[in-house]
From TrEMBL:
The gene is TIF1. ATP-dependent RNA helicase which is a subunit of the eIF4F complex involved in cap recognition and is required for mRNA binding to ribosome. In the current model of translation initiation, eIF4A unwinds RNA secondary structures in the 5'-UTR of mRNAs which is necessary to allow efficient binding of the small ribosomal subunit, and subsequent scanning for the initiator codon. One of its GO terms (molecular function) is translation initiation factor activity. It comes from the Eukaryota. This is ATP-dependent RNA helicase eIF4A. A motif (Q motif) lies at residues 165-193. PROSITE patterns: HELICASE_ATP_BIND_1, HELICASE_CTER, Q_MOTIF. It comes from Coemansia brasiliensis. SUPFAM superfamilies: P-loop containing nucleoside triphosphate hydrolases.
Length: 538
């Protein structure tokens, strides 16, 4: 017979499949994972927590119960013991939280929140049925569930934590402090001063800060402090949207944790599975990777997650709002139920805040108003090029006018990246190009050349728009304006990071004028026409 832990994980996987396929029903899931013995229930207490099991049993005993989930799927547990009851509960698939606010026209609020697995198993114990509510009933029973966010539009705010303005006052390990100062940090950035201590203390944290303000070091320092170096199984998992960002995070963590002897492994696509396997066999403290490869390693049982106590998502808006949500959910379901969750990003759209309800328990929120998202130290300009075909000559004229160390040029398509690369090389420019269709070895070589300075111009798609720090970049050119205006800040954040100065120049056709104005409005900023003395800025 399966252990309770195996049954628990099986239920979560089945529930996830059910959520992806609404036409399937829940009663079969309950019957497949029925618990029969007192010892199994006792083990379940340890897995889920006594309070949540007892709540689930009371729910079943009270009869008909509407279960309201953050994904707005409603279920009924039907029992003959007390027909007619209509108590409401908030249900988080795969996770329970300490507080949850439900709002409806009738003013009902503060409903208890309970783990879905506890409900299913309690229902199975009592021989109850669990079914999804019919659409007609769902329409009348559905509550509007809102994230508990209090954003002050004028300030960086957090819900109740102190600001610590010195690494020495954070209670950090001496060897970790050596690594921090050796890395070049002198004092915490705004986000680090607010987030590091709560993360170390075990608090779930949603942290928003501008690109280049030290978000990577925020969770890296926190993780490195929490690691038990005597334990060789992975204790922290960091997911990133791109392979390049994952490799950079690993590099930062290895540098910061060097004196502590922390082993960090990058688990990314485009590399050999056997290399991952050998790394895990030798012992890994922290895994940094992309969602697909990480899930594959867990699924193959190469990556054991039983000791993972912290799960971090870097560039959370990208990870959660664009195509990565399902992959992250797959990984999350295979982590311990009490895993701590940290999300960091430069932007936090409303839909991302809604999604965090599935992953986090009473999180500390450190949020920045949208008006402050434009980076200090980045001078922003536009050049009116009228038509698309005039862009290339404008680009070459610009390079004849100014002298720069290194620059990144963003285009919206792989085809345009290839076009620009070919044309610039014909004009004897030293150019590198990178896009998502290249294999990992090519991408690594290109980044190495660019970082070393052997290539002065890197042309890329939005693949590079998040989290890649090249120290010498002083100019970002948006050959095309980003199709998603929230990517604008990630693009221009490549120049002038951590207080260094930089310039962003946007090529604007007549058709792009409205998009440029939209970016200005979105970030409450002003992008001026490029001055004639642009060379003086470099």
């Amino acid at each position: 017979m399966e252990s309770v832990h195996q049954q628990f994980n099986a239920i979560i996987r089945d529930l996830h499949r059910q959520r992806m396929q609404p036409q399937s029903t829940l009663p079969s899931l309950v019957s497949e994972h029925e618990l029969q013995t007192t010892s199994e229930l006792a083990e379940l207490y340890m897995l889920l927590g006594r309070e949540h099991i007892e709540t689930a049993m009371r729910m079943v005993d009270r009869g008909v119960v509407c279960l309201i989930s953050h994904s707005r799927l409603l279920f009924r547990v039907a029992s003959s013991s007390a027909p007619g009851s209509d108590t409401s509960y908030c249900l988080l698939p795969g996770r329970f939280c300490s507080t949850c606010t439900l709002q409806s026209e009738s003013g009902i609020g503060g409903a208890p929140c309970v783990h879905i697995t506890a409900v299913l198993i309690a229902a199975a114990q009592s021989k109850c049925t669990v079914e999804e509510l019919p659409a007609a009933e769902m329409a009348t029973a559905l509550f509007s569930i809102t994230a508990q966010v209090n954003i002050d539009e004028k300030d960086i705010i957090s819900n109740g934590e102190e600001v610590v303005d010195s690494f020495d006052n954070m209670g950090l390990d001496e060897d970790l402090l050596r690594g921090i100062y050796a890395f070049g940090f002198e004092r915490p950035s705004a986000i680090q001063s607010r987030a590091i201590k709560p993360v170390i203390a075990g608090r779930d944290v949603i942290a928003q800060a501008q690109s280049g303000t030290g978000k990577t070091a925020t969770f890296s320092i926190s993780i490195l402090q929490k690691i038990d170096v005597s334990e060789t199984k992975p204790q922290a998992l960091v997911l990133a949207p791109t392979r390049e960002l994952a490799l950079q995070i690993r590099k930062v963590m290895e540098s910061l944790g060097d004196f502590r002897g922390v082993k960090v492994h990058a688990c990314i696509g485009g590399t050999r599975v056997v290399d991952d396997q050998q790394a895990f066999e030798k012992g890994v403290h922290v895994v940094v990777g992309t969602p697909g490869r990480v899930f594959d390693m867990i699924d193959r049982k190469i990556f054991t997650t039983s000791k993972v106590k912290l799960f971090a998502l870097d560039e959370a808006d990208e990870m959660l709002s664009r195509g990565f949500k399902d992959s992250i959910y797959d990984v999350f379901q295979l982590l311990p139920v009490d895993v701590q969750v940290v999300l960091l990003s430069a932007t936090m759209p409303a839909d991302v805040l809604d999604v965090t309800g599935k992953f986090m328990r009473d999180p500390l929120r450190i949020l920045v108003k949208r008006d402050e998202l434009t980076l200090e130290g980045i001078k922003q300009f536009y050049i009116s090029v009228e038509r698309e075909e005039f862009k290339f000559e404008t680009l070459t004229d610009l390079y004849e006018t100014i002298t720069i160390t290194q620059a990144v040029i963003f285009a919206n398509t792989r085809r345009k990246v290839d076009f620009l690369t070919e044309k610039l090389r014909e004009r004897n420019f030293t150019v590198s190009a990178m896009h998502g269709e290249m294999d990992q070895e090519q991408r690594n070589t290109i980044m190495k050349e660019f970082r070393s300075g052997s290539s002065r111009i890197l042309i890329t798609t939005d693949l590079l728009a998040r989290g890649i720090d090249v120290q010498q970049v002083s100019l970002v050119i948006n050959y095309d304006l980003p199709t998603n205006r929230e990517n604008y800040i990630h693009r221009i954040g490549r120049g002038g990071r951590f207080g260094r100065k930089g310039v962003a120049i946007n090529f604007v056709t007549d058709d792009d004028v409205a998009d440029l104005r939209g970016i200005e409005e979105f970030y409450n900023t002003q992008i001026d026409e490029m001055p004639g003395d642009i060379a003086s800025l470099f």
